[in-house]
Every structure is written in C-alpha cells, then in structure tokens.
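subagent[fold] <- orchestrator: predict structure for attached chain, return tokens only, no commentary.
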Amino acid sequence: FDSLSLKQQSLKAQEKLAIKSLIGIFTGIEGDHIRGERLSKTEIQWNVDPGFDPCLNSLIYKCLPLADARDSIVRFIEAIEWDHRRGRVARAVASTMSAFVEEDWMLAVMELETMLNANSLTVAEVYARTRLLQNALSLLADIAAAIDQQELVGGEILSLLDEKRSSNVDPHVIGLLDRLLEKAVVPYLRSLDAWVFYGQVDDVSLDFMIWDTENELMSAVIQQQIIPQDDLDEFDSIGDSFDRRYRLIGDLCPTFLRPVAQDILKCGKYLHIVDQCGVERKEKDGGSDKHLTWKSTGGASALVKVIEVARIAASVALVDILLKRYDLLALFRSVRRFLLVGQCDWLMIFMQVADDLLAKDADCVDETALSTRFEVAILNSSVKNDPYKD
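subagent[fold] -> orchestrator:
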C-alpha cells in the first residue's frame, strides 16, 4: 500500500477511495486499498491500507463481513456447479443463491456506485445501507458451509432449510428461506411424484428418501454401509417386511414429510405391486397433470394431505386387485372352513394316520414323514375338493 500518499489526502478523498475499494470487493474485485489474503479454503484475511483515517478504518472493517459472506457463497456455487454428485437439490440451492448474488446483491452494489458518482455517499452510509442484506448474506453463507462441510444432499438439505426457517423471526430472512425452499424442493417433488403416483424410483443422484435395492448404485452404497443401518430402519415397521426391495432412508426424509413417511413408503410399494400384476390404472391415464407443488404458505400441510389421499388411493387399487382378480374373500372363506367346522374332518384323519408320529417328542419327529401323512389326510377329507387347498 502507498500509505504515505493516502495519509496526505483529505478525509473526503480518503472516504471516496475507501468506498471504491469496498464496492470492488463487494463484486469480487480487489480494491487498491483493501486486499484479501486467503488463509484457507474457508478463511480470508482482509488487509486495509493503514493510511486511512482511524475512524474510516474502523468503519471499513465493519463492512468486510459482507465480503466474507459473498466469497463463501460464490465458492459454494462454483463447487456445486462442477460436482454433479452433490445432487439436484444442492444444484437448485446453488442456482437460487447465484440469482440472489447476481440480482439482489448486485442491485444494492449498483445503488451504492450511483450514489458514489453523485458524491452523496459516505462509508457510514455504506455500512447502514448494506446492514439489511448482511443478515441475508450471512444466512446463505452459513447454509452453504453446512451443506459443503457435512456433505448434505437431497432431503438433508431440505431439512436444514426447514429448520432454519422455523428458528428465524426476521421477515426478510424468512422470505429468503421461503425462496430457497421453494426452488430446492422442486427436484425432490419430481421424485416424490414418480413414487406416490406411479410406484417408480426416479432418483439418479441419490437425493430421494426411497431407495431401490435392485438398483446397482443404491445397493452398492447400502452394502458399503455409507448409509447407517439405523437410517434404513428408522421408519420400517414389521408390517412392511413382506417387501424389503424398497427402503426408506431416514436422513433423506425432510423434516416436514416425516409425519407421513410410512404413507409415502406404502404408496409406491402398493402401486408397484399393482403394476407387477399387469393392471392398467386410471391414474396413469390422467397422471400427466398430477404434480406435487410447494407453496411458502402451508406448503408442508398441503403436501401431507395430498400424500394421505394418494396412499388411500394406492391401498384401494391393491385391495381391488386382491378382491377381484385373486378372489381374496373366497380364500378367506376357505381358510375359515379349513380351520373351523366346515372341513375339519381332515384333522381327525390326520390324527389317526399320524398317531405314531404325534406321540413322539418334537425333536424326534421326521418332518418329511409328518408332511406326507398330512397330505394323505387332506386328500382323504372334504378339503380335497376345495380350489384353494394348495
């Protein structure tokens, strides 16, 4: 720095040079009197020309956190743009942050430049005018750091945004978070659409909460134990053990969808079974206009209602197949007759033909012989004419 030359200038001239340098670093360009030295990937040390008046110097340092925050956001945006492994939700967040920096932030900087050219701006006013945006930039920088350092993806990012929104009271910050969440949730809802309306896992970047264990990439990640077992089983219930192909990944379920996590899991499973039976569903005919949407006011509650309705529709579709195609009621009646009075003569026959085996201890019984006697009892009883005897 040419500090001696700067000291010899008037306070007004120093102030103009300080503002020019601040505007420069606010847009990512080093100023003549303010320079940044990168100490690490996440840390910059700002050096201010010591030739400035001490009061100006103090005000300049108060403005520098804005430059720190902008630098963190820009680095995050660039990293996500080049790393497609981070997923669609992360890219949507980075895109929204980029729009904020290029539009909202640059508009504020241009206003400062216009005022500077009109000689109606001081460093104190720069600090005052950017203070409202400082909270927003700091929030975005914190979100970027959390996503980057914790390697968050998909539903994890949505949970982070939802939690940040719930814990904030500043209306400007809440508005920014609504904007972020509204954009970030779009690619996630595409996967949710495919699952709850069609029973398909549409997730090439491992963002979504439902994984297909027959998918090579998803299966490999699970086998490598990158996803902890606790996360796999967090929502799984005994009632769903009939089909372990589709797994619910707990961490990838956004906080606002956790109340209906089981409904989401069942939706796709039921529809997948229906499709495996080769049944054409009405939903497919009109499916193109079925899209889940998010609104900043009541977005989560509206989603929950739609999902609950979709789960009921999927259940009805499955039960309809069981009742009509597989005649479930007739099967139940057959079981009732078999176990109760109607066809229980098989039991008396079985007890007679297997009397010697039944008298032994369970450990000593030949299972093959017992099974043969049971078949003999069935074939010699009224059950032999039951279409469901097998």
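orchestrator: received. Logging for downstream: Residues 41 and 131 are 26 Å apart (CA to CA). The mean pLDDT is 85.
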